[in-house]
Specification:
It is a single chain. Helix 2 packs across helix 5, helix 3 packs across helix 4 and helix 9 runs antiparallel to helix 10. Strands 2-3-1-4 form a four-stranded antiparallel sheet, with helices on one face. It contains twelve helices and four strands; from the N terminus they run ααααααααααβαββαβ. It has 306 residues and is α+β, with helices and mostly antiparallel strands. Helices cover 64% and strands 10% of the residues.
Length: 306
């Protein structure tokens, strides 16, 4: 009897969380799709004009496609089929929700890569040094990815591998990115010189730095301090959907002297949008403060909890 009641309670809680998630996904949908498409276009142009043209193996499936291109495989096709394979893997390892957020970007990006493939023929940089070309491409790509991640979507590819590695090894997403994309850059040595590989690492660093600093903030994680009248619902949302740890802190109003709780949680920067909008959907009057978390010490599998 007790087991049945617990099961019913969990199912009811899950339905509430699912409703919140659906509201977040449909909020500002046109605006989010616009920035997703714009971001994919910017990244595709940077890829063709700066990286593919000058054989700079930078990051992700895009970087691997530059290596494959040396063997006669068209980049846009390589990216498309690579993304499809990783989407299938994502569905079985990360679940339907993560896969859905990666689906559209995974398909749009290779299409834009194909549509902009001739841009490099019309844009010439003359005798500009390769280092400057790498930096220019990295800056443009960082801005494009920042726009994409801010919408709560991804372009799939190695973002999926990053998430899988982080899930099963319990390391942070940032460290997973360094490992996965670092291996992609090193793969450039199969066909190019060490000089090109080093340029790839410069590009990788600038892209990750700009994506975070200019668009999402300068750290890999965000700390949320939340005061809400709907504490249980917000806590359930964080625990059930974001899978983030939660700490309930005793708090007292400086003016009202009312006592209550403040919720503290730390989540990966890429989950910033879904957390922020989820809190606002549950309680439009909620007060929350978001800070960059420069260093997070894990306690078990959860972040931000005691």
């Amino acid at each position: 009897m007790l087991v049945d009641k617990i099961h019913i309670f969990r199912e009811a809680r899950k339905k509430k969380i699912d409703k919140v998630v659906e509201k977040v996904k449909h909020k500002d949908l046109i605006k989010r799709y616009f920035f997703l498409i714009l971001g994919c276009f910017i990244v595709a142009v940077a890829f063709n004009v700066f990286f593919l043209k000058y054989n700079i193996v930078c990051f992700g499936i895009s970087g691997l496609s530059i290596v494959a291109y040396q063997y006669g495989i068209h980049p846009s096709l390589f990216i498309l089929f690579g993304n499809i394979i990783l989407l299938i893997v994502s569905y079985f390892t990360l679940g339907r929700d993560f896969t859905k957020n990666s689906l559209i970007g995974s398909l749009i990006f290779p299409v834009f890569t194909e549509l902009t493939k001739n841009f490099g023929n019309y844009i010439e940089f003359g005798n500009v040094e390769l280092l400057l070309i790498a930096i220019m491409g990295a800056v443009l790509t960082g801005i494009g990815y920042g726009l994409i991640f801010r919408t709560g979507f991804t372009t799939g590819g190695t973002d999926i591998l990053d998430a899988i590695l982080a899930k099963y090894t319990k390391i942070s997403i940032g460290r997973a990115m360094i490992i996965v994309d670092g291996l992609v850059v090193i793969s450039g040595k199969l066909v190019f010189s060490w000089e090109i590989v080093l340029y790839g690492f410069i590009v990788l660093y600038i892209i990750s730095y700009l994506t975070d600093k200019l668009i999402l903030g300068i750290s890999e994680s965000k700390a949320f301090y939340i005061i809400t009248s709907r504490e249980d619902e917000v806590k359930d949302y964080l625990l059930s959907y974001i899978h983030g740890g939660v700490t309930m802190l005793s708090a007292r109003g400086g003016y009202s002297d009312n006592k209550g709780f403040m919720i503290l949680t730390v989540v990966p920067t890429r989950d910033y949008y879904i957390v922020k909008e989820g809190i606002k959907t549950i309680d439009k009057n909620a007060f929350f403060l978001v800070c960059d978390a420069y260093e997070v010490s894990n306690r078990g599998e959860k972040h931000g909890s005691i």
